[in-house]
Automatic annotation (TrEMBL):
Signal peptide: none annotated. Residues 1-17 have a biased composition (Basic and acidic residues). InterPro entries: CP12_dom. This is CP12 domain-containing protein. It comes from the Bacteria. It comes from Prochlorococcus marinus (strain MIT 9313). Residues 1-25 are annotated as: Disordered.
Length: 72
C-alpha cells in the first residue's frame, strides 16, 4: 500500500470479512493494527506513507533500544 489511509481502509474491509467468517483472532489483530496506524497518523499528520511494523513500534515505544538513533 502506498498510504496509511489505504492501509486503514484495507484493514477495515478485512475486519468485516473476518467477522463474517467468525475469525475473532484476526478481528482482534486487525483492530489492534488499525489502532496503531491511527495513533501513528495522529502523531505524524504530515506523513502520508504506510509505516512498517518497526515504525509503528518505535512510535509507541521511542525509548526501546531498537528505536534509538545515534548521531555521530
Amino acid at each position: 500500500m502506498k498510504t496509511i489511509d489505504e492501509h486503514i481502509q484495507k484493514d477495515q474491509s478485512e475486519i468485516q470479512d473476518a467477522k463474517a467468517q467468525g475469525n475473532d483472532a484476526k478481528v482482534r489483530h486487525l483492530t489492534d493494527e488499525i489502532h496503531s496506524l491511527e495513533e501513528y497518523k495522529d502523531h505524524h499528520p504530515e506523513d502520508k506513507h504506510d509505516p512498517n511494523a518497526l515504525e509503528l513500534f518505535c512510535d509507541a515505544n521511542p525509548d526501546e533500544p531498537e528505536c534509538r538513533v545515534y548521531d555521530d
